[in-house]
Each structure stands twice: as structure tokens, then as C-alpha cells.
Specification:
The chain has 132 residues and is an alpha+beta fold. The chain has helices at residues 39-44, 93-107, 122-127, and strands at 26-27, 36-37, 47-48, 56-58, 77-81, 86-87. Helix content is 20%, strand content 12%.
Length: 132
């Protein structure tokens, strides 16, 4: 005789919070003010956030159809204000040498002193044949 099917209660779907309680102001892609830009746009302009937190959220395209709810998708972007952004600090030769030395230390095997083209993990170092 077949078993009776147990009906499971569905869990309620996770609904985003209302847009008014989201914390930061949210803008759709077409109505974003020109002085608010993403991190990539800051980099293209030769600026950096300068220690400031984001001032707004750029909503994803799918949330444009739900204007009354906050965007909770991972495709949303943070917006920084260009008026508070600082200019980028240029790379100097000393900084470049220090970065090269740090990367050399991360990609060099301590036992055979061979330098790889990728960073070595501690787990990889344990399983290498010349360390056993």
C-alpha cells in the first residue's frame, strides 16, 4: 500500500524591506545624479573615495519594476560623491619595489627558492614533493 504524501508548509518568500527603511537613498540607473558615481567611475576619473563611505545605492535593473521596495540583489552598486573624493595617490618607484618584493615573497617556495607565476598557499607548500 503506498504511503500517504505529507504536505509540507511552504516557507514565506523573503520580501525586501520597504524602500523608505533601506538606510541609504536609492537611485535607478536612469535618474542617478551626475555627481554620484560608482567605484570604477571614480577610478576612471582619477579619484579615490578618500575614507568616505558610500552615500547612495544604485539599484539593479530588475528592481526598477518594483519602485516601492529596496534593492537586495548582489548586482546593486554603491555610489560615492565626487565632491568629497580625493585625487589618486600616484605610484612611485619605491612603492613599486615594495610591492614587487611582497609578491616575490608570496610566490617563492621557501625550500627550493623557485619563484612561481602565482601566489603559493600554505596548503600547497605542505603537499609539494620537495618538502616531504
Amino acid at each position: 500500500m503506498p504511503r500517504t504524501r505529507v504536505r509540507r508548509r511552504r516557507e514565506p518568500l523573503r520580501t525586501p524591506p520597504p524602500r523608505s527603511t533601506a538606510g541609504l537613498p536609492e537611485f535607478d540607473r536612469s535618474v542617478c545624479p551626475p555627481h554620484l558615481v560608482t567605484r570604477r567611475q571614480l577610478r576612471e576619473l582619477g579619484l579615490r573615495p578618500g575614507g568616505h563611505d558610500p552615500v547612495a545605492v544604485l539599484r539593479c535593473r530588475s528592481c526598477a519594476y518594483r519602485p516601492g521596495q529596496a534593492c537586495i540583489h548582489p548586482t546593486r552598486a554603491w555610489l560615492w560623491d565626487t565632491t568629497t573624493a580625493l585625487p589618486k595617490i600616484p605610484m612611485t618607484l619605491d612603492k613599486e619595489r615594495a610591492l614587487d618584493a611582497a609578491m616575490a615573497a608570496r610566490s617563492t617556495c621557501p625550500a627550493c627558492r623557485r619563484r612561481y607565476h602565482y601566489c603559493l598557499k600554505r596548503a600547497e607548500l605542505r603537499w609539494m614533493h620537495h618538502l616531504t
